[in-house]
Specification:
The protein has helices spanning about 55-70, 85-95, 110-120, 145-160, 175-190, 215-225, 240-250, 280-295, 320, 325-340; strands spanning about 40-45, 75, 100-105, 125-130, 140-145, 165-170, 195-200, 230-235, 250-255, 275-280, 300-305, 310-315. With about 350 residues, the protein is of the alpha/beta class. The strands form two sheets. It has a six-stranded parallel sheet with strand order 2-1-3-4-5-11, sandwiched between helices. Strands 7-6-8-9-10-12 form a six-stranded mixed sheet, with helices on both faces.
Length: about 350
């Protein structure tokens, strides 16, 4: 992600680079599990690479680390209907092959990271969006998603012409509740009587809530038909359908995790993407790789991104967003309130 404004996430995403994917095998720099690193191992969440959101942000950090540190890495896609045992095998294959750090992208990897980290104590493991693992060789890469979502709510309330907006979550889980809670609170800080549609696509990730653009499109069509003219999604790959529906109806969409206005695969719809609530997943991946490969001081424990440290924010690539003085003033006030503690953002 590139730095776009005072609201944007700090840390630049790498441009698309040619990547040599190393074959799985024993490490060329040390024995399996020795702690020596042949590069970065990355295991994607549901939806996989190409979601223009969460997984692609992780891949950007992976690419940048490869380039800056002169290493090669291996990234592996998820499989439909896979079990925790499949995830464990994937992580252990990376660790055994000499990749260090090994990163699981998404909270679904928590049981697998816990098990694999115990078997390979000299390998640093990272997990994004989970902080339940207490181990010396695990970095819990987490974020204050509610803070950027609060700003997204302020933006939505300022942009709506109908005082009617919507939220679409991919899966009904506590992590996504943080997005909804912040969004609702931010919107109501502007207009306490604003109407907010809310919907979760599925109860579990296995049902496709983060990986089904058709589900996102159908949900967005329903909210727009009900009167919403700004729709915010926290739905991974499914969010592409939300954005498509917003463009078809000529209303605003608010993206998530990456700057979706700037994503090539969404270029046909970009004029309908008001902003995106950013989460610096790319920076988290890069920083963990740096701590292991370059600094030789692996990060561990809770590593949390916030507005204060540039770990979350809003993108301002769309001129209609960036040049709206009233909206920008409201965002500046909200951001300052969160930073100085006068605004406490809810997480549920």
């Amino acid at each position: 992600m590139r730095r776009v404004s005072r609201f944007a996430v700090a840390g630049a995403a790498a441009a698309a680079l040619a990547v040599t994917v190393s074959a799985c095998g024993s490490s060329s720099t040390g024995s399996a599990g020795s702690g020596a690193s042949k590069g970065i191992g990355l295991a994607y969440d549901v939806g996989g690479k190409g979601d223009q959101s969460f997984n692609d942000a992780a891949y950007a950090g992976f690419q940048k680390a490869e380039k800056d540190f002169g290493v090669s890495g291996r990234d592996i896609e998820p499989q439909d209907g896979e079990s925790d045992a499949d995830k464990v095998q994937r992580l252990e294959t990376l660790a055994k092959s000499g990749y260090n750090p090994v990163i699981g992208v998404g909270f679904a990897y928590a049981p697998a990271v816990k098990e694999a980290a115990a078997k390979y104590p000299k390998i640093t493991f990272g997990i994004i969006d989970d902080n339940t693992i207490q181990a010396k060789n695990v970095a819990d890469l987490v974020f204050h998603e509610e803070q950027s979502s609060y700003l997204a709510g302020v933006a939505a309330a300022k942009a709506t012409k109908k005082n009617h907006i919507g939220f679409i979550g991919g899966v009904d889980v506590p992590l996504i509740h943080k997005f909804e809670a912040g969004f609702d609170q931010g919107a109501k800080s502007v207009n306490p009587s604003i109407k907010i549609e809310s919907q979760y696509l599925t109860q579990t990730a296995q049902e496709g809530g983060f990986s089904s653009p058709d589900k996102g499109e159908n949900a967005a069509n329903g909210q727009i038909d009900a009167g919403a003219d700004v729709v915010y999604h926290a739905a991974g790959l499914s969010g592409q359908g939300v954005i498509k529906a917003a463009a078809a109806h000529k209303v605003w969409a608010i993206g998530v995790d990456s700057d979706q206005y700037s994503q090539g695969a969404l270029s046909a719809y970009k004029d309908s993407i008001l902003t995106s609530a950013l989460k610096n997943v790319s920076g988290a991946v890069y920083d963990l790789a740096k701590s292991v490969i370059k600094d030789h001081k692996p990060l561990s424990g809770d590593v949390r991104g916030s507005l204060d440290n540039g770990g979350v924010g809003l993108a301002d690539s769309n001129p209609a967003f960036k040049n709206n003085a009233d909206l920008q003033a409201a965002l500046k006030k909200a951001e300052q309130g969160i930073k100085d503690g006068s605004i406490t953002v809810k997480t549920s």
